[in-house]
């Protein structure tokens, strides 16, 4: 783990995780990032999650807990922060859920492959610039099974023309190292994803970019 990776994960203590859903998934998504958790992000999660799933940057486990997964779905949780792993595992309460404490900036040890990998609100927390953090696409494509999909959502940087609430949060979070996303933009994510995948879809809602990538270039 590098110092810069640690900053993007350290804020998620049991106390901040207790407030996370209300503050981030409720208030901030609605009023700062203008991307609805219930109407946009959850349907996108449900549409892409597959039976052997890896969730990276797990937070409170909200999406997995609410997605009404089939009983067959096997879930693996990966996060740098043990408090997030514990909170999400407890929340989703599924027998057989595995946890991996690991920094996503480095390749996942072993050669396990998944049908789907989700990265929700992770990339804006990773140390920038975009060219550095996007290296994870090159690692994670090797963790997909044939036909698998990598998908997620991330808050865009200054180019996204944030509203005044968003600008205040962006300034505070980037100053504290909770976010490192000032230079993140849709075009840059497109370039990096297309370096590693033949099939890339990008869609913007408010200041959030939703991405889906399949058919890795190996
Ligand atoms: C903003 S939360 C997202 C939670 C959840 N996915 C959601 O969308 O509600 C970011 C999560 O990513 C984790 N994280 C941050 N940097 C990380 C890194 N370098 N490697 C692995 N996990 C990291 C944090 O610990 C935290 O659990």
The tally of structural domains comes to 1
CATH architecture, please? 3-Layer(aba) Sandwich
Note the total helix count.
9
The chain-level mean pLDDT equals: 96
CATH topology: Rossmann fold
Helix content: 40-55%
| Shape field | globular
CATH class: Alpha Beta
By oligomeric state, this entry counts as single chain
* Secondary structural class: alpha/beta
Q: Measured on Cα atoms, how large is the radius of gyration? A: 16 Å
Strand content: 15-25%
Question: How far do the termini sit from each other?
Answer: 26 Å
Q: List the ligand species.
A: S-adenosylmethionine
> In CATH, what is the homologous superfamily?
Vaccinia Virus protein VP39
Number of strands: 7
Poorly predicted regions are none
Major sheet characteristics: 7 strands, mixed
* Widest sheet, order of strands: 3-2-1-4-5-7-6
SSE order, one letter for each helix or strand: HHHEHEHEEHHEHHEE
